[in-house]
Design brief:
The complex is a heterodimer of chains A (127) and B (195). By secondary structure, chain A is of the alpha+beta class. In chain A, 31% of the residues lie in helices and 36% in strands. In chain A, strands 1, 2, 3, 4, 5, 6, 7 and 8 form an 8-stranded mixed sheet that branches. Chain B has 195 residues and is mainly alpha-helical. Chain B folds into 2 domains: 103 residues, 434 Repressor (Amino-terminal Domain); 78 residues, no CATH class. Chain B contains 11 helices and no strands. In chain B, helix 2 crosses helix 3. Classes of the chains: A alpha+beta (127), B mainly alpha (195). At the A-B interface, helix 2 and strand 4 of A face helix 1 of B.
Chain lengths: 127, 195
C-alpha cells in the first residue's frame, strides 16, 4: 500500500488544483487509476500504469478520449509514499514541455523541507 | 461514497474505467500467481502475445464477454458479471491489492481444501475409486479400497496422517497448474509439518 501525497503550490495541493480544472471524466479516470495503483506495492507500479522518467521522477499514465494524461511525481519523501508534483498531457512531447523539469525542481524542494511542501491526500479511498 | 458521485458524468465514467482497470490489474495478478508470461498465457488462449499486452492495458484492450470467458477458461477461475449498486461497487474496490486480485485456480482451491482437511483426501479417493467401478462410495469396503490404492499410494493417502503441498502453492506462490495434484499424490505424511 502506497500513501499518496501532493506538492503544495501556493497553499493548495497540486492534485486538488488540477482536479478543480478538469472535466468529470478526467477526474474519474485518475480516481480509478489511483484507487488501484495505491493498493499495489512499489514493484507493481510499472507500465502501462506508471513509468519512470528521470532524476527519480516518474509518471502515472492514463488516457481519456485520446488525450494522454501524465501525473508526475516521485516515491517519497518517506518510505512507501508517492508525492504528486505536476500534471501534464503528452502527445509526442510533454505539454508543457518543461513538465519534467518542474517536477524535478519540486521534488528537490520537498526533499529539503517536506513539512512545508507536502500534504497528505484524503481522496481515492485514502483516509 | 464521495460527493463526486453526484455528478452523472463522473459516475458513468468511473464505472467504465473501473472495469477497464480492474480487469487489466486482475489479469496481470492472476497471470503472475500462475507463473505465466504474457506469451504463455497467449498460447493457452490461442492468441498473440500482444493481445495479452493490450488486455493488461486499460487504455487499449477491447474487452468482450467472449474474451473474458476465454481468460477465465485459460486461468481456470470463475467469472462474475453483474450489475450492482454504487455502494456495492465501492465496497468491491476497497481491497484491490495484488493478493486480493490474484484469485486461486480451481486446482489450487481444491488443493487448499485438502491441506485444511486431510480427511477429504480419503473421501475424494474413495469416491473416485468407487466411480471407476461404477459403484457408490458407500458400498466400497475400506479393505478393497485400501488394497486397490496400496500399490500407488501406500501411506500418504491411506494413512491419512497428513499431506504436503507443493511449497510454492502452500505459500500462495507461483506453482504451475497441476502441481497441486502431483504433490498430493507424492506427499509423505512426515512432510506436512514442513510444508
Amino acid at each position: 500500500m502506497i500513501v499518496l501525497k501532493a506538492f503544495m503550490d501556493g497553499g493548495t495541493d497540486v492534485v486538488s488544483l488540477w482536479n478543480s480544472q478538469q472535466r468529470a471524466k478526467v477526474r474519474a479516470a485518475l480516481a480509478v487509476k489511483m484507487t488501484y495503483l495505491r493498493q499495489q506495492n512499489r514493484e507493481g507500479w510499472i507500465r502501462p500504469h506508471y513509468d519512470g522518467l528521470r532524476d527519480g521522477v516518474g509518471e502515472v499514465r492514463f488516457k481519456v478520449e485520446r488525450i494522454n494524461y501524465r501525473a508526475l511525481g516521485f516515491f517519497g519523501p518517506e518510505r512507501n509514499e508517492f508525492t504528486f508534483c505536476f500534471f501534464a498531457t503528452k502527445t509526442d512531447e510533454f505539454d508543457p514541455r518543461n513538465a519534467i523539469d518542474i517536477a524535478v525542481e519540486r521534488k528537490i524542494l520537498v526533499e529539503r523541507d517536506a513539512l512545508k511542501h507536502v500534504a497528505k491526500l484524503t481522496i481515492w479511498g485514502q483516509v | 461514497m464521495n460527493d463526486e458521485f453526484k455528478d452523472r458524468e463522473y459516475r458513468d465514467y468511473f464505472v467504465e474505467d473501473n472495469i477497464r482497470n480492474g480487469i487489466a490489474f486482475q489479469i496481470r495478478a492472476i497471470r503472475k500467481r500462475q507463473g505465466l508470461s504474457q506469451q504463455e498465457l497467449a498460447v493457452k488462449m490461442d492468441k498473440a502475445q500482444n493481445v495479452i499486452s493490450r488486455l493488461e492495458d486499460p487504455d487499449y484492450g477491447k474487452l468482450t464477454l467472449k474474451t473474458l470467458l476465454s481468460l477465465a477458461k485459460a486461468f481456470d477461475v470463475g467469472l462474475l458479471v453483474k450489475f450492482v449498486s454504487f455502494s456495492e461497487l465501492m465496497d468491491s474496490i476497497r481491497d484491490v491489492s495484488e493478493k486480493a486480485l490474484a484469485v486461486p485456480s480451481f486446482d489450487e482451491e481444491v488443493a487448499q481444501k485438502f491441506f485444511d482437511r486431510p480427511s477429504l483426501i480419503e473421501e475424494f479417493s474413495a469416491s473416485k475409486f468407487a466411480n471407476s467401478r461404477g459403484q457408490s462410495a458407500e458400498r466400497i469396503s475400506a479393505a478393497s479400497y485400501r488394497s486397490a490404492l496400496a500399490p500407488n499410494v501406500p501411506e500418504a493417502l491411506s494413512g491419512m496422517q497428513g499431506i504436503a503441498l507443493h511449497s510454492g502453492l502452500a505459500a500462495g506462490g507461483n506453482a504451475p497448474r497441476g502441481a497441486a495434484w502431483a504433490s498430493i499424490r507424492m506427499a509423505n505424511p512426515s512432510n506436512r509439518a514442513n510444508a
